[in-house]
Amino acid sequence: MEELMDFDEAVARFDPVIGLEVHVELGTETKMFDGAPNAFGGDANTYVTPVSLGLPGSLPVVNAKAVEYAIKIGLALNCSIASSCRFARKNYFYPDLTKAFQTSQSDEPIAYEGHLDIDLSDGSSYRFPIERAHMEEDAGKNTHVGGAEGRIQGADYSLVDYNRAGVPLVEIVSHPATGVGAKAPQIAASYVRSLRDVFRALGVSEARMERGNVRADVNVSLREGPDAPFGTRTETKNVNSFRGIENAVRYEICRQAAILAAGGTVVQETRHYHEGDGTTSAGRVKSDAEDYRYFPEPDLVPVAPDLAWVEELRAGMPELPAAKRRRVKVEWELTDEELRDLVNADAVDLVEATVAAGASPSGARKWWMGDIARHAKEADVELRDAPVAPSDIAELDGLVRDGKLTDKLARQVLEGVLAGEGTPSEVVSARGLEVVSDDGALVAAVDEALAANPDVAEKIRGGKVQAAGAIVGAVMKATGGKANAARVREIVMERCQ
What we know:
Blueprint lengths: L6 H7 L1 E11 L38 H13 L3 E2 L6 E4 L9 E4 L6 E9 L5 E13 L3 E5 L11 E5 L6 E7 L9 H19 L11 E10 L10 E6 L2 H20 L7 E6 L4 E7 L9 E2 L10 H9 L5 H11 L4 H9 L3 H9 L4 H19 L10 H12 L5 H12 L5 H8 L7 H14 L1 H8 L6 H11 L6 H11 L2
GO molecular function: asparaginyl-tRNA synthase (glutamine-hydrolyzing) activity; ATP binding; glutaminyl-tRNA synthase (glutamine-hydrolyzing) activity; transferase activity
EC number: 6.3.5.-
Enzyme class: ligase
């Protein structure tokens, strides 16, 4: 068990510096350098071509759509777009890298020197500095059989699936982020969340972290103070959850602080993150760039995006998440806390789509953040994966606004929709849940309730209007909650005049 310093003590004694390398898989139809399908899942080693497998004599061709997506990402991150850039070979051996090198970009990235402003839960903001965004290909996937937690240590054997080999990636490399202090874990997670939202807004990736579409390498170092040289950093690899990013930063701060306080030296190394307990463990000694022996890829010509094309892409950029949040806060009359809840639940786009389908902002927010969110949590799925569409919620909200459903009945209808019983109208019809609005039926129910409660009826006639609630409750119970409560109250008062 590694020695840890208390987090508050660690950030009081040392100045944390963080950096992130975030990989996003692009949602192109084909891979980065060949025509193999770029798809999730599938039988092992079926989405491959000779190029994917790195077979001798096979030659790469750059995916133009991937270049377009990379430029859009660069523009969204306030980067400069290179007038010309090249691919390079990054040399290292690993079983899932058939060529023994990765085709990437080294000193000539497609986009460089940008930033992303992120909002924090306490209402403050932080400008995260970005060094570069470059294009590259993904490696395959190793499956280690027999070892603990799927690790190679102690495994009996390993299997390699090359379906992912060659999938187009953009890697966003940050500059060291300074001045983060005790907010370092939150800033790191919020930065990656903001990037994820940008990718989705651009339509360049599904950006599903649970599928590895977005994953982060988390760099952490400590120094004596803000004016001291940077300390030795560690790099926790392939963290694919916001909680994991936050935990990895916090753990490394506590671990490194304990080492430095004891007079030890932090080793520059890669580390593995363990989701179960939020800890990290040593991987391998970290290589520097020169160890990869980068050199220009001889089989690919430089990429030189036309300036007019870049400006055309810039002009066609969609509304980005930060601008959308500012807009909907005003349009939907949200408090800072309400907006933060929507953002943290990844519900802004869902609510917006529901409003666009005809719901009121308050109604859309109520359903997504209430009953649907609870259902998603119980089913252990993302809110966006709940089996209900924005159009269903807009229809449900309309039925309530039109007085055809009470809130109680609407919840029963939603249960049916979530259970796959059809649209709200179909569930209402099948379950017979529509509000009873027929005056004849309501008058009869009121008269029956008044007759059964003569003492209450007498109090109402004597001017105690609040006693009408007991009769309304009796009618609602008798009708199974299907009566229009407002109309029932009106009838009660009319009958007791």
